[in-house]
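Class, look over these structure tokens:
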Amino acid sequence: MSQEPHWTDDRMAQGVGRLLKSGVVVAACVTAAGGLALLLQRGGGTVDYHRFRGEPAELRGIVSVVTASLRLQVAAVIQLGIVLLLATPVARVLLSLVEFILRRDHLYTTITSVVLVLLLYGLFLGGRL
């Protein structure tokens, strides 16, 4: 009796699809909640579009964004939603890497590892060197 492998192509595609859908939905909900809170907090103020002001330095790092989000700072909650949206494809590549390792597919494990390293480099070090 031949036993079907645990990680079939269909099962892998379904897992990746669920991960991507879940990641986008969670990121959208977090961003929308932060946006709604921002509107409730500052919605009546006057906006000045003549001068660009980026996010403060304390909202430019992942750890500081998460920390400020836990303190319910609305701008940080919106940033957290964006971080979660960026993390979704990284999680997809990571899930694919685990699946290729479990399949013992050395070629795709190597290729996926390189892609993961490049993604993480771009997210954490790109533009800083």
